TrEMBL record:
GO terms for MF: hydrolase activity
Record carries keyword Hydrolase: yes
Name recorded for this polypeptide: Cysteine hydrolase family protein
Class of the enzyme per the UniProt entry, highest EC level: hydrolase
Gene3D superfamilies: Isochorismatase-like
Keywords: Hydrolase
UniProt cross-references to Pfam families, sorted A to Z: Isochorismatase
Domain (Isochorismatase-like) ranges: 5-141
Amino acid sequence: MNRKTALLVIDAQTGIIEGMSHDPVYQKEALLQTIHSLVTQARSRNIPVLYVQDLDVAPEGDPAFAIHPSIAPAPHEPVFRKKATDAFHGTDLHERLQEIGIDHLVIAGCKTEYCIDSACRRATTLGYDVTLVGDGHSTNDSSVMPAESIIAHHNRCLHGLSNLEPFVVVRTSAEDVFAPIHDFYRTHE
């Protein structure tokens, strides 16, 4: 089946990544390098890149609110601003993806247990196959477990998660994440 892919970069904002009010996210430099590589690859392959910003991070115009400068959107790349952890709730993200015929999302960004998890789950219920870049999302330590464990836990829980027909596959950035492998799994069940 022929798929149309987009890269969705969620909440990769300076205030989250750098931790302006608290600690930076786990392995922030590696995260930024991975997302930068994904964005560069997508642009070179004419794959749409879309960004999401969380309105709760900081006031608009504050440097902490901005998408991290090392992975900032190009002028033509849309940015969706959200109030909820779900990138689709209260935004026109789904409508925009439908307009351009997207049926496969590659997801990266912050924070693993909140907005990344929510976006992956909601995307499948909206009909998108999802590739979560396993080394392309991050978070902070919690009072219950360290960030590294939160990331590993979510990679494990989300891999293979399906709602109806679409599902999530977790792959590393070393793989060609823009070439979906969902249909391979469907034909080899």
